[in-house]
Write a structure and sequence with these properties.
heterodimer; A: 460 residues; D-Maltodextrin-Binding Protein, domain 2; 2 domains; two-stranded antiparallel ribbon; 19 helices; B: 297 residues; mainly alpha; 2 strands; 73% helix
Chain lengths: 460, 297
């Protein structure tokens, strides 16, 4: 028996209860923080801030909430500084910052969405994660707002990642891509050239393995690092049109033989290149091995490049001797070898926000060229704002990444966020099982197809 | 009934009302509300709830991860009873009977310290210990020439949950031992002196005097460990997040993942109902079995 229930009061109650339980048991994540920069004008509200004799230019008044996932002490100060600067320019506006961790924001967004109390501006990953907000009418259509000079600031691919059915729902803040970084000294000392095909990469791994050097430092404790390999391998083995159909829950089937071949390729990379027992090693522990010069290569996101610089804490030996290349495609790849794994991260605007003008103005300010340059310089991240990364404000590899992204055919968004959650789980669990030898490629493909069928049925 | 008694009754009700109100709002209402919501299918992103009757419970019965999670909780409970309750009892008896002076206090502190460490910290600490490349556990096996026993302890489906359970025993045995020490210190020394005069050995004294007289504490320790074993979540989440391939999930982590990753709030509520029934039943059973059997000499 099925019936549609009435109001969402009970859902809100349970969401709050679950949230309270999660807090009580101290569930993962480093917890959130709600702050307002010291320069904020406390208590400014629309009504209270109406002052006689205001200037003729329309002045923004009121307060908005802003949820981001950069509570890490290395990153939070940048956002606090930008918010403080914005409030200094708009004395009658208050921006309340809600800072969360990468994991914490996933929980918080769900609780807030369930209780219909989303902040005015909130973080969201591109892909199906954002689509959930769109389907629930929780994200404002920004197509008519992000136009003209504002829209032209961005790399088109970054806006494309937040566009669904021809409508724009998000404003990108960072730009990310996945690359194989390598220790140039180890490569030179061992007479190894940068591989240009998957076969050459495997041979390179054999060379390092024979010399007692770990080929690719790899930690897959929470599953996503292996999924990033699959995100890149799938477009190599499966035609782009098929991928697009399969990644959409409504049409996904995953029956193309290329999916199995991509998994086989990963199994081969694992056996010849990757750290064994990787499910028991964190990504950070693996990265420490690369930083220490014990591994020749490491597959990381461009936002992690900063950690390989001296300013980011890397030893000089490594900081002065690394470069990167795209995970190479097999020589006879039937798919598109120009696709690059990666996606922008960005912010959505609450469709029910009562301060839309401030929310949009703030997002506009957050993504000005000056602020984008500051972000690149302060955090070492890449911005989707064109011209924000130059030799003057960042290290050479970051400038190269911008150039490289510009040549990519398209961006392959992270497999665990672009697909339906059931399919993402089938990949995450299946690849982990392949690594610990409890499942074969055929088992994993069958699981993915079953998950796709479930997702398809649920979306009908 | 006299007026004074009636006034006393109202006064009594007023005194207990705040506590009752808090319990109703924060314990009983959520339990009932959770039960109701377990009959619905809803996602935090969806504007509607769909009544599905007992479908969530049927899904639960057919979900292999639910059953493996339940098994992991049961394994957690059995191992915890053996090592925390049994081990804690023996440890307490050894500390009380065989160790004297400052060493006794020092050892008591050493055994208790892990219990006050944050689960996140111990989880991260043991992640390093279990690391297949640089971990102490595999290093020790290397030194002992037991290479064949080396594993990626947290990275293999067959070993992950056992590695977490082992860490939990290390962390909690000292806490249970301290509970037993408190109970043992309340046993009159004359009983032991009389037993030793009659020729009893230390083991006999432990079995005939200590064990019966700490029965109530044993019951309490069992309730704590068994209930705790079915509520375990943090250590699993920090160390494996239920992986690899869902092998180390417990009911708590599977509930959390279902709610906050898979967006299946109704299903998560059904798991919560099962956890509630199990822990409630275990507690009632243990209280019933231990009722009226307090030993006194």
């Amino acid at each position: 028996m099925t019936a549609i229930a009435g109001p969402s009061r009970h859902r809100r109650t349970l969401a709050c209860l679950i949230a309270a339980t999660a807090i009580i048991v101290g569930a993962c994540g480093d917890g959130g923080a709600t702050t307002a920069p010291a320069s904020a004008e406390p208590g400014a509200t629309q009504a209270a801030s109406a002052e006689p004799g205001a200037t003729t230019a329309p002045e923004l008044e009121g307060s908005i909430s802003f949820l981001h996932k950069y509570s890490d002490p290395r990153y939070a100060p940048y956002f606090e500084a930008v918010v403080a600067a914005y409030m200094a320019e708009h004395p009658k506006v208050q921006v309340e910052i809600q800072a969360e961790s990468d994991q914490g924001v996933k929980d918080k967004l769900r609780v807030l969405a369930a209780s219909n109390t989303l902040p005015d501006v909130y973080f969201s990953w591109a892909g199906d994660f954002t689509k959930k907000f769109v389907r629930g009418n929780l994200a404002k259509d920004l197509t008519g707002d992000v136009t003209g000079e504002w829209a032209e600031r961005f790399t088109p691919a970054a806006l494309e990642a937040y566009t669904y059915d021809g409508k724009l729902y998000g404003v990108p803040i960072t730009l990310d891509a996945k690359y194989m970084v390598y220790n140039t000294k180890l490569f030179a000392d061992n007479g190894v050239a940068v591989p240009t095909t998957l076969e050459e990469l495997l041979a390179t791994c054999d060379t390092f393995e024979a010399k007692g050097i770990e080929p690719i430092a790899f930690g897959n404790q929470f599953g996503w690092p292996a999924i990033h390999f699959m995100t890149q391998l799938n477009p190599y083995y499966v035609p782009a049109a098929t991928l697009q159909m399969d990644y959409a829950p409504e049409t996904g089937a995953f029956t193309d033989a290329g999916y199995g071949k991509a998994l086989d390729a990963f199994a081969e990379i694992n056996s010849r290149c990757l750290t064994q027992g990787a499910n028991g090693i964190s990504h950070e522990a693996a990265q420490a091995n690369f930083l220490a010069g014990k591994a020749a290569m490491h597959y990381i996101e461009a936002v992690e490049f900063f950690a390989l610089t001296e300013k980011g804490g890397a030893p000089a030996d490594l900081a002065n001797n690394w470069d990167f290349f795209m995970l190479p495609a097999p020589a006879d790849a039937p798919g598109d070898t120009g696709y690059l794994t990666g996606a922008p991260d960005g912010f959505l605007v609450n469709a029910s926000s009562e301060q839309l003008d401030i929310a949009l103005d703030f997002l506009n300010y957050l993504t000005t060229l000056d602020n984008a340059k500051k972000m690149v310089a302060d955090l070492g991240w890449l911005s989707p704002v064109q011209g924000s990364a130059t030799a003057d404000n960042t290290f050479p590899q970051n400038v190269q990444v911008i150039e490289d992204i510009a040549t990519a055919t398209g961006m392959a968004i992270w497999l665990d966020t672009v697909t339906h959650i059931d399919v993402a789980n089938a990949y995450l669990n299946g690849v982990q099982a392949m690594l610990d030898g409890t499942k074969t490629t055929a088992d994993v493909v069958a699981d993915i197809q079953a998950a796709a069928a479930t997702a398809k049925a649920a979306s009908e | 009934m006299t007026g004074t008694t009636r006034r006393g009754g109202w006064s009594m009700l007023l005194w207990v009302a705040p506590a009752v109100l808090l319990l109703v709002v924060f314990v009983y209402y959520p339990v009932v509300e959770n039960l109701r919501l377990s009959l619905y299918r809803w996602s935090p992103f969806s504007p509607r709830e769909v009544f599905v009757g007992l479908d969530n419970y049927a899904t639960l019965g057919a979900d292999p991860v639910f059953w493996s999670s339940l098994f992991n909780n049961a394994a957690y409970a059995v191992v915890s009873v053996v090592f925390q309750v049994g081990g804690g009892l023996v440890l307490a008896a050894v500390l009380e009977e065989l160790v004297r002076g400052r060493l006794k206090g020092l050892l008591r502190t050493i055994y208790f310290v892990p219990a006050v460490l944050s689960l996140t910290i111990t989880g991260l600490l043991f992640q390093f210990m279990y690391n297949p490349q640089i971990g102490l556990v595999n290093g020790l096996l290397d030194v002992l020439g037991l290479d064949a026993w080396k594993h990626s302890w947290l990275g293999e489906s067959a070993t992950a949950i056992w590695a977490i359970i082992a860490m939990s025993q290390w962390q909690s045995v000292g806490y249970v031992a301290v509970l037993f020490i408190v109970a043992m210190q309340r046993i009159p020394r004359e009983l032991y002196e009389a037993a030793y005069i009659d020729g009893a050995s230390r083991v006999q004294a432990f079995l005939r005097i200590t064990l019966p007289l700490v029965r109530e504490m044993t019951l309490l320790a069992m309730i704590i460990t068994v209930s705790g074993a079915f509520l375990v979540m943090n250590e699993v989440w920090v160390m494996t997040a239920g992986g690899p391939n869902n092998a180390s999930h417990t009911l708590g982590t599977w509930l959390y993942k279902s709610a906050f990753f898979n967006d299946q709030m109704g299903y998560a509520a059904a798991i919560a109902v099962v956890i509630f029934i199990i822990t409630m039943t275990a507690s009632i059973l243990q209280l019933f079995l231990g009722r009226g059997k307090a030993v006194q000499y």
